[in-house]
Amino acid sequence: NAGVTQTPKFQVLKTGQSMTLQCAQDMNHEYMSWYRQDPGMGLRLIHYSVGAGITDQGEVPNGYNVSRSTTEDFPLRLLSAAPSQTSVYFCASSYNGGNEQFFGPGTRLTVL
Amino acid sequence: ILNVEQSPQSLHVQEGDSTNFTCSFPSSNFYALHWYRWETAKSPEALFVMTLNGDEKKKGRISATLNTKEGYSYLYIKGSQPEDSATYLCAFLPGGNNAGNMLTFGGGTRLMVKP
Lengths: 112, 115
Known about the structure:
The complex is a heterodimer of chains A (112) and B (115).
Chain A lengths: L3 E4 L2 E4 L5 E7 L5 E8 L3 E10 L2 E4 L6 E3 L9 E3 L8 E8 L7 E2 L3 E5 L1
Parallel strand pairs in A: 2-11
Antiparallel strand pairs in A: 1-3, 3-8, 4-5, 4-9, 5-6, 7-8, 9-10, 9-11
Chain B lengths: L4 E3 L2 E5 L4 E6 L5 E9 L6 E6 L5 E4 L2 E6 L4 E6 L8 E9 L9 E2 L3 E6 L1
Parallel strand pairs in B: 2-11
Antiparallel strand pairs in B: 1-3, 3-8, 4-5, 4-9, 6-7, 7-8, 9-10, 9-11
């Protein structure tokens, strides 16, 4: 199993550009989530999904959209990037939210 | 926003020392507490999932205890080794309507073990 994969690994955007961070898992996990990691702030939950077709907001959802059309994929969309969205983004999955989370390798995003 | 705090923020120990860290979380509406180990340039990996008051979990030289009544968990490392150097994260999950879905992470304890 590949586990949780994320693409791209690195990305530089200009303010106002849009992009999608990809996340996929091959463990048939129902629960998937996105976090951002900023210095001194730890991991903060952006959005999560408890199954295909179901998504909900986490602690810091503003500026991000998600969808979950399949069990395997959970893309994160930045509609109009801002410098405040410069961060490292981690996707995670688990059988359900209460179980241990399996994290992807992360995407380092810089918004200029 | 839930308050999940970890202390200390960082810790330097010598190889062979035993050490422990604290995770504090809300004492009401508890669902689960997770511990993760996060090495530099890697992704967090789960150590323990704890759900019951009084839980004690052990994996090799690392163990954890849980007190949901007072809202804290301790992580212990016995005989620290350089390979234990990492950031240790705890994550609190509340119960209620979104039981187990909204993980709130603490800021982490960064452990550095000197040979």
